[in-house]
């Protein structure tokens, strides 16, 4: 018979929800999953990155990482469209990206189709999603699969492991840290490689008769220096509700939580210069700010069995083995938390699976130690 494990996941962003779903849907009946988080889908807060994402697919992965997938139900807010990547100056060492082999309709854009000021471009079929809608969609799937969601702030991994999992007071066998930037301050993690990269975006819409054109493409424009360079990045991502995300900024270590009006104007100006036919009459609905959870050295996707000392005499006496917990991490996705969400979730779950035997072994050792100690 398959054992049922109690899993507590920290974080209800795209990483926590995707990882929880990979457990529940990948291994039906094996895991009982509870998510605890300060912020839940529908919340908007500077410390909760996921609602602010564009979110489109521009791969930074190497050729070995093909675990990029898309969801295709209307509730998910996912659209397939054409992705245009533009360079003001063609990179001297330009090579076709690795994903040329897996995307549909990849091509170098003919010169006559390029916007004014753009020297080189590629386009291909890509994916964009409505981030807040996608989070709600994941949340619904999670609840439907039997997951439990609880709003709670925890100070440490130890506190996470101590949370009662069910009415009988059982605690977690496995804890998974998907706390994004929260991993900087979480005791037991304190990851100093984490740093915020501020992104300001503008939510706009175009005139109604232009929407059928605007909804067909995403755009990302790379500048070499000048007014379009230095900390700025120009992009356009439509959402399935008629809104369009215009971006943006990449401001490392900047945590200002309010949008800057000057930046909003600069973003609209840059986008308009690229596509005046669509955006010269666009209407700004609001400006927003999010902090990308960047990590020097890349994401932390890992798992290992740890003995978390709880300092609880009762626990030490009655269930010493419960201080031995399988601890997994899935955080630090920077600018690509959505596009890497499914692949990283699957890898995390794979690592958990690979450590279950070690969890059982160490718990056994601790139980025997406890019995010996009790006899002394
Ligand atoms: C402007 C902008 C544009 C972006 N565009 C894209 C894009 O086009 N494509 C793409 O793939 N990605 C994009 N991203 C990046 C993407 O949004 C992030 O990588 C992703 O959302 C990170 O998700 P996460 O679940 O790891 O973290 P978060 O969404 O930040 O979730 C962290 C969770 O942990 C909880 N938490 C943290 N600490 C604690 C604690 N101590 N106790 C309890 N709960 C805690 C929080 O409450 C929250 O629920 C963009 C980001 C921004 C800001």
From TrEMBL:
Family of the protein in this entry: Belongs to the DAMOX/DASOX family.
Keyword list, A-Z: FAD, Flavoprotein, Oxidoreductase
Gene Ontology cellular component annotations, sorted alphabetically: cytoplasm
Protein name: FAD dependent oxidoreductase domain-containing protein
Record GO terms (molecular function): D-amino-acid oxidase activity; FAD binding
Binding residues for FAD: 49-50, 154
Residues reported to bind D-dopa: 235, 292
Pfam families for the chain: DAO
An example Gene Ontology biological process: D-amino acid catabolic process
Residue ranges annotated for the FAD dependent oxidoreductase domain, each copy included: 7-350
Transmembrane segments: none
Cofactors required: FAD
